[in-house]
């Protein structure tokens, strides 16, 4: 069997584009060259990978399996070749970073801008995903590294702790807790007992930390009902404005300009979430990814949480 890297590369592009002509345009090949590469690949494997019609190209079961298995292998090979090529040369190429939405919005724009200024030969691509997906992509090698809230398990990851982000309460300005405490007050966690809560759902890396802090202060589900669980912080803020409940949020989720219709209040005792860079353990990064990792570690460690 003599399957080439180029044949697999063409196949994966066909699997993504579902078109021979578009694949040719993407890879700089003629349509006949794409077709020939696919015929040769199917001949080497002795199995049909594609069903072709006049309108579209569909993957067979064997084609779907090959696309699923080959993509990460080819990406790892491409990373390896890029790393070898970078030895003794200036770091260059594309670096993929995954980050959860709150961290993507609060930390990554300035970081990516700084990379563009200080590492102009490197293109940083941000993959904005939920925390669980970020960790999965780091572990699979689909991205070079991730920016995450400290996960429950770090055994298979190398990491750097960047900063600690405290949780805060978000309430309507006329809420009785604020009226009782006065301006600039700090609320205790146990003062939230009996309040309906609007929280981020369990896909968020912060939710388990919020739940633990509430439980430790005697504000478990039986005392503080979670009336809404949402995927985005903006949704939670709008629900608090509508009077559905109060919310607990990481400080980095609060807009830099603050709110016109909501009040943010510190919580005591202070409970923080650790923000980390994570990468696969015992896997060296390509030179470009290592340069971005080092710069991100320096920049984000100096960025104080709200």
Automatic annotation (TrEMBL):
What name goes with this protein?
A: LysR family transcriptional regulator
Entry's Gene Ontology molecular function annotations: DNA binding; DNA-binding transcription factor activity
Return the GO cellular component terms, semicolon-separated. Answer: cytosol
Keyword tags: DNA-binding, Transcription, Transcription regulation
The protein's matches in CDD domains, at most eight in alphabetical order, are given as:
PBP2_LTTR_like_4
Family note: Belongs to the LysR transcriptional regulatory family.
Show where the HTH lysR-type domain sits.
3-60
- List, alphabetically, the InterPro entries matched: HTH-type_LysR_regulators, LysR_HTH_N, LysR_subst-bd, WH-like_DNA-bd_sf, WH_DNA-bd_sf
Protein biosynthesis recorded as keyword? no
Q: What organism does this protein naturally occur in? A: Comamonas piscis
């Amino acid at each position: 069997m003599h399957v080439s890297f180029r044949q697999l590369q063409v196949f994966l592009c066909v699997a993504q584009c579902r078109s021979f002509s578009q694949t040719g345009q993407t890879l700089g090949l003629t349509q006949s060259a794409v077709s020939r590469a696919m015929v040769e690949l199917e001949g080497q494997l002795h199995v049909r990978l594609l069903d072709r019609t006049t309108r579209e190209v569909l993957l067979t079961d064997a084609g779907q399996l090959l696309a699923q298995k080959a993509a990460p292998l080819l990406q790892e090979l491409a990373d390896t070749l890029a790393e070898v090529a970078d030895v003794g040369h200036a770091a260059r190429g594309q670096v993929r970073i995954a980050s959860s939405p709150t961290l993507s919005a609060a930390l990554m724009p300035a970081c990516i801008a700084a990379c563009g200024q200080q590492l102009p030969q490197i293109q940083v691509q941000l993959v904005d995903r939920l925390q669980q997906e970020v960790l999965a992509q780091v572990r699979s090698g689909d991205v070079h590294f991730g920016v995450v809230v400290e996960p429950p398990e770090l055994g298979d990851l190398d990491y750097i702790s960047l900063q600690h982000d405290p949780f805060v309460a978000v309430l309507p300005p006329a809420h009785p807790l604020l009226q009782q405490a006065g301006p600039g007050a700090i609320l205790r966690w146990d003062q939230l007992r009996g309040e309906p809560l609007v929280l981020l759902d369990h896909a968020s890396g912060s939710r388990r930390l919020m739940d633990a802090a509430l439980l430790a202060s005697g504000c478990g589900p039986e005392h503080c009902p979670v009336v809404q669980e949402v995927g985005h912080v903006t949704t939670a803020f709008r629900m608090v404005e509508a009077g559905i409940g109060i919310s607990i949020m990481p400080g980095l989720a609060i807009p830099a300009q603050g709110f016109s219709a909501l009040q943010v209040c510190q919580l005591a005792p202070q409970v923080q979430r650790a923000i980390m860079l994570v990468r696969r353990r015992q896997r060296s990064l390509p030179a470009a990814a290592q340069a971005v990792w080092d710069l991100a570690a320096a920049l984000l460690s100096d960025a104080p949480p709200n």
